[in-house]
TrEMBL record:
Native source organism of the sequence: Hydrotalea sandarakina
Lineage, opening ranks: Bacteria, Pseudomonadati, Bacteroidota, Chitinophagia, Chitinophagales
Name recorded for this polypeptide: HNH endonuclease
A Pfam family that the UniProt record links to this protein: NUMOD4
Keywords: Endonuclease, Hydrolase, Nuclease
Domain NUMOD4: from-to ranges: 8-60
Superkingdom of origin: Bacteria
């Protein structure tokens, strides 16, 4: 037996093939799950489950195969108002995938999920990191796209008057950079 949380309500969770299981399962509005055989109050045991991409899952063996369910989905199905036809997703209002309390969950459409994730601190941090990395890469480039096109045009012209060395000096790069542009090793994606 385990201690119940204040204002915690439990409901039995039935999933496909649950009659083939030896145990029964109860899910609480606080995002907890327990198993029991006969009497929930006497022999109920809290389950921890495991995590996949931050979401708590419960994995069970039914006959000869395994099945699993997401805990937040079980809480939503048992404790939230039934969703509309287009509300197939569940969002965590505080963006914490481990907080599976019914009051922290909401049925949502795909568009609502996308909009909700824009305010997710982890998504914001990842976006900022990508922007910083992109800015760092742009700073490291010595040539612009227009300059590379000019160089490629000069290299393609058999009557050009500038040598590789003169082109390198003109654009502030090494002769090897000009050679690599000619071979397509650098800036190979740029077409003239």
């Amino acid at each position: 037996m385990f201690e119940h949380l204040p204002n915690e309500k439990w409901r039995q969770f039935d999933f496909p093939n649950s009659n083939a299981l030896q145990k029964k399962y109860m899910v609480s509005n606080m995002g907890r799950i327990a198993s029991f055989t006969e009497n929930f109050k006497k022999d109920g045991t809290l389950l921890k489950g495991s995590a996949i991409e931050g979401y708590r899952i419960i994995r069970l063996k039914v006959k000869d195969s395994y099945t699993h369910f997401l805990l937040h989905r079980a809480v939503a199905e048992l404790f939230l108002k039934k969703p509309k036809a287009n509300e197939k997703f569940i969002i965590h209002l505080n963006h914490n995938k481990k907080d599976n309390r019914a009051e922290n969950l909401k049925w949502a459409t795909q568009e609502e999920v996308i909009e909700h994730n824009k305010s997710n601190p982890r998504v914001k941090a990842a976006r900022k990191k990508i922007q910083q990395r992109t800015a760092e890469l742009k700073k490291g480039l010595k040539l612009t796209l227009a300059q590379v096109k000019d160089i490629k045009k000069m290299l393609a012209n058999p009557k050009r008057k500038l040598t590789y060395k003169q082109m390198a000096e003109k654009y502030g790069v090494s002769e090897m950079a000009i050679t690599r542009i000619k071979r397509g090793e650098n800036w190979g994606h740029v077409k003239v």
